Amino acid sequence: MTDQQIITAQVTKAILDLSAAGKLEKGAQIVIGCSTSEVAGGRIGKNSVPEIGEWIAAAVLHVCEQKGLIPIFQCCEHLNRALVLPLSAAKALGYTRVSAIPQPKAGGSVPAAAWKMMEEPCLVVSVQADAGLDIGDTLIGMHLRPVAVPFRGEIKQVGHAHLTAAYSRLPYIGGERAVYV
């Protein structure tokens, strides 16, 4: 298998496993943070690889379309961790839009690729996603809605990058007499 096939398969399996574990329904939001530097075996923020960004963005968009999920791509700190998502979703969810276009070295290779691949992309300040994949320790936690539940699937890394995944559950309220769904 080529590197592209391996990385695409890892990303696809990670999303499918997370979707099943989190019982994500159609319309659920999934945020992806990714360091292509880490995927390639380098250090985060030091060696962006646009080609790997294209592979990962394409895999995420494909599986999200199949599952009916809303794909959201976190930019790096150079764009204040803003997020790329379809304009229609941003409007429907009431997210605050900002004006910038991600680039491989100012936003990240995956968000830059996703921007080019989406029909009508936009950039927003923040989201409250239902689940997320963090490829290469990019810190997506700020974009997950409470309560985030860590998920350990079969896929532990994408390329050379460490993979962390989480989905959100409804908060439990009440006390010892409460009955939960």
Annotation keywords:
globular, alpha+beta, 181 residues, 22% strand
Summarize the structure in words.
The chain has 5 helices and 9 strands. It is an alpha+beta fold and 181 residues long. β8 and β9 form a beta hairpin. It starts with a helix and ends in a 13-residue tail after the last strand.
* Rounded mean pLDDT score: 95
| Percent in helix | 25-40%
Structural class: alpha+beta
**Total of helices:** 5
Q: Rough shape? A: globular
- CA radius of gyration: 16 Å
Low-confidence stretches: none
Please provide the count of β strands: 9
Strand content: 15-25%
Distance between the termini: 44 Å
How would you sum up the major sheet?
9 strands, mixed
N-to-C order of helices and strands? HEHHEEHEHEEEEE
Secondary-structure blueprint:
Layout: H1 3-21, E1 29-34, H2 36-39, H3 50-67, E2 70-74, E3 83-86, H4 87-93, E4 97-98, H5 109-117, E5 121-124, E6 131-135, E7 148-151, E8 157-158, E9 161-168
Parallel strand pairs: 1-2, 1-6
Antiparallel strand pairs: 2-3, 3-5, 4-5, 6-9, 7-9, 8-9
